[in-house]
Amino acid sequence: MKAQLLEKLRATIAEWAQKHDIETTVIDAQFSGIGAGVHLLVVARRGFENWRWADRERDLFRFINHQFNGNGNFVITRLETMTEGEYEKFEEVAA
Is the pTM above the cut of 0.85? Predict the structure, then answer.
């Protein structure tokens, strides 16, 4: 059931990206390991450059909540949307 939920989250994110003409390179959904927390990561090759960070994350968050209609099986505990350039900087810091 958990694997199915993560797959559905990835598919929902892909649908959102397609609706906004965003070319993604990474769509990752993983359980955080704490309760029902889920970490989501979306990296785009093209499409985020004209969005403010807060706007793209707010829009995606609302889209996911609408699609899952308040499903209590998970809580988004981390949501990251990045351009490829931002992601490369993020990986450098994480290493």
Answer: yes
